[in-house]
Design brief:
Layout: E1 4-10, E2 14-23, E3 28-37, E4 45-51, H1 59-64, H2 68-74, E5 77-81, H3 112-115, H4 120-132, E6 139-149, H5 151-162, E7 169-173, H6 183-193, H7 205-211, E8 217-224, H8 230-233, E9 244-251, H9 258-276
Parallel strand pairs: 4-5, 4-6, 6-7, 7-8, 8-9
Antiparallel strand pairs: 1-2, 2-3, 3-5
Length: about 280
């Protein structure tokens, strides 16, 4: 089923759209945003996927980050999906802020209770990228990057590294880098995947990075030194390898909020534009 337009707003030299569609992956209605710069007929543009953090919808990034000015400047399409299924109620999915609604963790759940709907990994990597978004935006599938914040930074790192043929550039703001060792990650991964921790590693950025042997990547990570969640994020667990160069910047006095994200948003667009436009 085609996506239905919810809203359209002029922003800089482009338009900010919001769409709703019936997802075959999450088995419910989903909402996503997409910013499309002005372009010529039949012109394909490089594209970024942005994955948001815990409690967020598609709208937090759209309304708080100020990204549109940079997307307009660099002429990059930006897709920003929701963080979990919303159009379905699973028992217990609203009991806590860090699991269930608003906390899909970009995994494909295997625990029976969650497996039907909580498939945010496939939703981003397959359904949105390959099927839904190309019908509403002129994306150049050969020039796609991915970035995100916190839980979404975890998603960006794991998805980007596990799918190097689809995502050519990667960055993250305050990502959850080693979820198998911290409370946020342990709660989510055990809840969605069960108790066999060997199945968790595919969704742990530090573990995926160790095993990565694909095309060389330069990964930008920004982290605030005053972030109250530093113990959950563990950016020091990311280790540079032969195949991945890490640029990890600790930003003095900045916290976990969109004040932090918006301050360094321009740097991340520069990072992605340089890589994608060179392809």
């Amino acid at each position: 089923m085609a996506a239905t337009l919810v809203s359209s707003n002029r922003s800089f030299k482009g338009r900010q759209f919001v769409y709703k569609h019936a997802s075959t992956t999450t088995q419910c209605d989903m909402t996503f945003g997409v910013y499309i710069p002005d372009h010529e007929d039949n012109e394909k543009l490089p594209t970024l996927f942005y994955l948001s953090g815990l409690t967020c919808t598609h709208a937090n990034f759209m309304e708080k980050s100020g990204f549109q000015q940079f997307a307009s400047k660099h002429r990059l399409i930006v897709v920003h999906p929701d963080t979990s299924p919303r159009g379905v109620d699973v028992e217990g999915d609203s009991d806590s802020w860090d699991f269930g609604k608003g906390a899909g963790f970009y995994v494909n759940a295997t625990v029976e209770k969650w497996a039907k709907n909580y498939r945010m990994y496939d939703y981003v990597v397959k359904e949105l990228l390959e099927d839904v978004v190309p019908k509403v935006a002129p994306i150049d599938a050969a020039r796609v990057g991915i970035f995100g914040h916190s839980m979404g930074g975890h998603g960006a790192l794991t998805i980007g590294l596990r799918n190097p043929s689809k995502f050519k550039s990667i960055s993250a703001f305050a990502p959850i880098c080693n979820p198998i060792t911290v409370p946020w990650g342990q709660k989510a991964l055990s809840g969605y995947l069960g108790d066999d921790q060997s199945t968790w590693q595919q969704y742990d950025a530090s573990e995926v990075l160790k095993a990565y042997t694909g095309p060389r990547r330069v990964i930008l990570v920004d982290q605030g030194s005053a972030d109250n969640f530093l113990a959950q994020l563990k950016s020091d667990s990311l280790k540079e390898t032969e195949y991945a160069e890490l640029v990890v910047r600790m930003q003095p006095e900045f916290d976990h909020s969109y004040y932090f994200i918006s301050t360094f948003m321009g740097d991340h667009f520069e990072h992605h534009a340089k890589i994608l436009k060179a392809l």
